[in-house]
Amino acid sequence: MDSFISFTGIAASIWIVLGIYIASRFYPNYSHTKQFCSELGAFGSPTKKLSPAINNYPLGLLFALFGYYLINSYSGHLPTMVIGAMVVIHGICTWVCGYFPMDADPYTTTPSKSCKIHTWSGLIMLVSFIVAPLIVTFSSYYSWPLRLLSVLSVVGCVYFSYKLAKSLEQKTVPGLYQRLSYGCQILWLLIFSVFIVIK
């Protein structure tokens, strides 16, 4: 069973790309550059029920299982256990984001309670996958290539998050920068998961 669970991090990394792509095929004229991933499950979206069903809920489970695996399998190594906790938190917040949709208009000045919960949960997701690679960066337990890739992941995520904020302000292509920012984190998860499996 543990050998199966060890692959859930890799599965989540692949699943999220496929899930977003598949859901977007059922959303007429959906733009991956101009629209957020969460707009697939937003209020009034044609994929409001489909998106969380194939994205948030199974992804949350995969994240939680991989985090559990890290905590359980590396009980004698605190840094990896903390990373596991961050992955579990990421999974729980993925569920929360699926259960509480964002508003149809991402630029609304009066967001609903559901949208506020969604936004705060998304922020925690962002932070959890900044903390995790930073732990790898400063832990001599991990190989130097993984540590280097981890710091590059954080730098890329922060940079594209900054570009996202600017793009949101200018109403240009926030969807593109959201994908690049989160893409840095998911790529890190994939590489870290492979490291865990082959170690």
TrEMBL record:
This protein's record includes keyword Aminoacyl-tRNA synthetase = no
- Keywords attached to this entry: Membrane, Transmembrane, Transmembrane helix
Where would you find the membrane-spanning parts of this chain? 6-24, 54-71, 77-100, 120-142, 177-198
Specify the protein name.
Answer: DUF998 domain-containing protein
Protein species of origin:
Alteromonas gracilis
